[in-house]
Design a protein that fits this description.
CATH topology: UDP-N-acetylmuramoyl-L-alanine:D-glutamate ligase
Largest sheet: 6 strands, mixed
Strand content: 15-25%
Order of helices and strands: EHEEHEHEHEHHEEEHH
Shape: globular
Strand order of the largest sheet: 3-2-1-4-5-6
Distance between the termini: 44 Å
Helix content: 25-40%
Number of strands: 9
Oligomer: single chain
Number of domains: 1
Length: 273
């Protein structure tokens, strides 16, 4: 008898983040992104939010021991190719995630330093910011702050130019990440410019700014898309380029959705419906 053909390996990405009950951001956005980009998605719920397109009504903090149990369960069975980290909520969870990823030697890690929701609601306690700087950033292949997040991490004013963005990225690199993607979505120019900064180079990614209020989950989606690319074996620059293209198209299609009455979600499945 002939043996059945060997199955090709399945690209797997893990999201460690908060749950968004409205479905537009957090773990829900990450899993949609992984699926849209042909990657199997696993998840660790680090926090739960009662949330919709208008704001965050409540946050429930998952005990660190249970976060640890979820991480260990995933790595005990699944061949994870990349990890995306989003909302973690507090310092104890940040430290737990950092310790378990170090234990499992999980690479590559994409760190989205989620601090504030699109609605303006704070999602990370102040005491967790230092833990993120010292425990998680050294594990990351890339950190993906927007302009307010970079400023908060550095206790500095928001970058007002591309030169400022590069200078802040270089300061963030000194905290241990191998690369920083400074996201320009909060800028005011006609084009949205993201800068991927490493110790040796800076790469610009440019897209036309799209006029829509439906941008809920864009940061989560971009970081998840980068992790999906890395899980499929792309190098970092190619993964960021593909992720930027995917998110730009998802934002451009966002107004085709009629979801909620506030900042609606981007259209993760714009290629299909």
């Amino acid at each position: 008898m002939t043996s059945p053909p060997a199955l090709a390996s399945t690209a797997i990405a893990l999201t460690i983040a908060g749950s968004d009950s409205g479905g537009g951001a957090g773990v829900q956005a990450d899993l949609k992104t992984f699926s849209a980009l042909g990657v199997y998605g696993a998840s660790v719920i680090a926090a739960l939010t009662a949330q919709n397109t208008k704001g965050v009504a409540a946050v429930f903090e998952v005990p660190p021991a249970f976060v640890r149990a979820q991480v260990d369960a995933v790595f005990a069975d699944l061949a994870v190719g990349a990890v995306k980290i989003g909302m973690l909520g507090n310092a104890a969870v940040v430290e737990t995630v950092a310790e378990r990823l170090s234990h499992h030697r999980a690479l590559p890690v994409v760190l989205d330093p989620v601090m504030v929701a699109t609605s303006g609601d704070r999602l990370l306690k102040p005491d967790a910011v230092d833990a993120m700087r010292t425990k998680l950033m050294p594990l990351a292949v890339v950190v993906t702050p927007n302009l307010p997040e970079a400023a908060a991490l550095l206790d500095a004013p928001e970058a007002a130019s591309e030169d400022d963005m590069v200078r802040q990225a270089e300061r963030l690199l000194s905290l241990g990440s191998r690369a920083v993607l400074m996201k320009g979505g909060h800028g005011k120019a006609a084009e949205s410019v993201d800068l991927l900064v490493t110790a040796t180079a800076t790469v610009r990614f440019v897209a036309a700014r799209i006029a829509t209020k439906n941008t809920h989950g864009t940061g989560c989606t971009l970081a998840a898309a980068i992790a999906a690319g890395l899980a499929k074996g792309q190098n970092l620059t190619d993964a960021v380029r593909a992720a930027k293209d995917y998110v730009t198209a998802a934002i451009a299609a966002a107004d085709r959705l009629a979801v909620g009455h506030g900042h609606g979600p981007v259209h993760h499945f714009h290629k299909w419906w």
